[in-house]
Amino acid sequence: MTRKHRSTHGSPWGPIGLALGLAMVMVGLAMFVSSCYGNPQAQIRKEYGEEGAATFAQKGKPAPDFALLSLEGKTYRLSDFRGQPVVLNFWATWCPPCKAEMPLLDQRAQELKGRAVFLAVNFEETKEQVESFAASFDFQGLLILLDPKGIVGRKYFINALPTTFFIDSNGVIRGVRLGVLTETMLDDYLRQIGLGQ
What we know:
The chain has 197 residues and is α/β, with parallel strands linked by helices.
């Protein structure tokens, strides 16, 4: 009786000890898996903050519809282009990385004319500012749209420029890029929405 009493309650491996031991094993295993495979959402938050994570969280979801004016005063809706892949780029004239990637975007837009639409949404600037900038370039493929109050940008949780969304022909966001696009990156994202070169 005494011996049985000691083995049940005096051992550190009683019910409470076993539960604690199991919890420690589980925590250790979680840390091991995290260190080996990483946590994509945690990494995104670390690199881009909570707002950046909100931008990335839209991947795999339907792209919010919107209506914006072009420089020519015509209204375009995102839903007008359903059935075609769409590259949706948010930019500003004061943003050097935005200006650096625009010739590449315009080139791809020309090459993929009839197969895809490239929308360049100016974020929170006036029509006059954008017209002055556009006059110094000879854009042939990009469709420039105006979001002077940032209403559409906020729908897409824009917190850094440039930010580009890659939307498939069904209107679903398949890729998100915060920051400047290189040629290789752009072509990789285009393949994700069915636009292999």
